[in-house]
Write a structure and sequence with these properties.
By secondary structure, the protein is α+β, with helices and mostly antiparallel strands. Helices cover 32% and strands 29% of the residues.
Length: 273
C-alpha cells in the first residue's frame, strides 16, 4: 500500500520519491529520493461577486505580499466613497443648528433677567427654556450625524477595498484562471506559490526513525539538468508512522532567496550528522 503522507498525492509521485529509498544507510554517504515543493500555494478569489476589470499579472510573474494582482469593476463603489466624503465634510446644517442654539440660549438669558425684574411671566421663561433645550438637542444631533457620516466613509472605503485583490504572500504566479471582463463568482482567479524557502519532502523507511532529527543538515541535489548541492535543514519529522507501508515523512527547509531553484521537481538528499 502507498504511504498516506501529503507528499504522496499521486501514485506517480510516490513511485518517484520512494525509488532508491530502501538501500543503504540513510545517514552518511547514501542519498535518498525527495521532492522539492513550494512552502505554500494559494488560489486567490474574491469576497464579492463582480466583473473583473483587470488581472494585473501573468503566469511566471514574481509578486510581493500586498501587490495588487486583480481588480473588479468598482465605479459604483468609488462613487459611494466620494458621496460619503462629501456628506462627512458638510458643515452647513451643524453651523445653522449651532446658531439656533446660541440664539435660544441668549433668549433664555434675557427672559430670566426680565423675570427677575417682573417684566415677563414664568410661563414665558419656561417656553424659552424649552426652545433652548430643543435647539441644543438639534445641534447635538447634527454633530452625531456628522460622526455617522465619517463612519460611512470608512464603510464605503472598506467596500471599495473588497474590489481589489492583493497577494497575501511573496511568490510566483503559477497560473491565472480568469481574465478582464469575466465574471468572478467565488471561483479562483489565479494561483500564487511561495518558493522561498522551499519544502523538501522525504518519505523515510521505519529503519531510519530516530536517526533523522529536526535541525539536522541535508544536502539536496536537484534532478538534471539542474546541478549543484544545496544545504537544507530538517524542520519536521513526523511522529505518526504509516503502519501499512512502514514509512514516515520528513520535511527540510531550503532557502531560495534568488528563486534559482524551481518547485515541483525530484531530488536526492544526503543527511549529515
Amino acid at each position: 500500500m502507498m504511504p498516506s503522507f501529503d507528499l504522496c498525492r499521486t501514485y506517480a509521485l510516490c513511485g518517484i520519491v520512494l525509488l532508491g529509498q530502501w538501500a543503504g544507510d540513510v545517514i552518511g554517504a547514501e542519498s535518498v529520493g525527495c521532492a522539492i515543493e513550494p512552502n505554500r500555494s494559494v488560489k486567490l478569489s474574491t469576497a464579492v461577486e463582480g466583473v473583473l476589470s483587470e488581472v494585473k499579472v501573468k503566469r511566471g510573474d514574481i509578486v510581493k505580499r500586498g501587490d495588487v494582482v486583480a481588480v473588479l469593476q468598482s465605479g459604483v463603489e468609488r462613487a459611494s466613497v466620494d458621496l460619503a466624503k462629501a456628506r462627512a465634510t458638510l458643515r452647513a446644517e451643524i453651523d445653522a443648528r449651532q446658531a439656533r442654539a446660541k440664539a435660544a440660549e441668549r433668549k433664555l438669558r434675557r427672559a430670566r433677567e426680565l423675570l427677575d425684574q417682573h417684566f415677563v411671566s414664568s410661563e414665558e421663561v419656561d417656553d424659552a427654556e424649552t426652545e433652548y433645550e430643543v435647539a441644543k438637542r438639534n445641534y447635538q444631533a447634527a454633530q452625531e450625524n456628522q460622526k455617522l457620516a465619517a463612519l460611512d466613509v470608512v464603510r464605503a472605503k472598506a467596500q471599495l477595498a473588497l474590489r481589489t485583490i492583493a497577494s497575501p504572500i511573496d511568490g510566483i504566479v503559477v497560473d491565472t484562471f480568469l481574465s478582464g471582463g469575466e465574471f468572478a463568482q467565488g471561483q479562483p482567479i489565479l494561483e500564487i506559490a511561495s518558493i522561498d524557502p522551499l519544502h523538501v519532502e522525504v518519505i523515510m523507511p521505519m529503519s531510519a526513525y530516530g536517526k533523522v532529527e529536526p535541525g539536522m543538515t541535508g544536502i539536496v541535489m536537484p534532478e538534471q539538468p539542474l546541478t549543484g548541492e544545496f544545504e537544507a535543514k530538517v524542520a519536521i519529522v513526523d511522529r505518526i508512522v504509516d503502519a501499512a507501508s512502514g514509512t514516515f515523512g520528513v520535511r527540510l527547509l531550503l532557502e531560495n532567496r534568488s528563486f534559482s531553484l524551481p518547485a515541483g521537481i525530484e531530488c536526492q538528499v544526503r543527511f549529515t550528522d
